[in-house]
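Q: Sequence in, structure out?
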Amino acid sequence: MKHPQNGEKQDEKDDHIYDGHDHEHHHEHEHEEKGGRPAKPGKPKREGPPNEEDLQKQLTILEVARNRIEAFSREADMLASALRDHTRATETLKAIDAMEKKPAEVLVPVGAGVFIFAKPSVTNKVLMNIGNGITAEYPIGDAMEKLTSSLKDLGDKEKKVVAELERLEASAEALTREVQTMYEEMQRSKQA
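A: Exactly. Output:
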């Protein structure tokens, strides 16, 4: 990579902050060490103390990371809520299926944390939402199978989202430390 000489304008692409992704594959040869070996990935070395522009770029990257963390956190919360609902429905269907011909009283939620006692008149089939507000009648065993399958899918999705959330949080924490260090370097250079 060539650095500007007296009066030469620096190429704008040389002034970027490395974000961990290789966006320009056609410049790979520029990132090689002597002997043709690829250089280790990392941020380009800065000459001198950081400036306001460097700090602003890093703060923007940090803000994007925090927004992604917030979005993944909301998604994790929604998945956890869906898992609880599916688990509760599966347990209720198992209990109703076990009643066979002698139904016992069950608690039916009516909203706002209020439940009523009821005896199901039919214990071998249920109505189940199949999407777009449409419900269909299923034998209780088939409904439990569908719920069990949905539970597995939701659990797999939740694991992936939580893993990505943890990765993003660790990355944002490292970036926060970097921004703090840059700020402190700028303050020291101003005082010198």
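The two ends are 30 Å apart (CA to CA).
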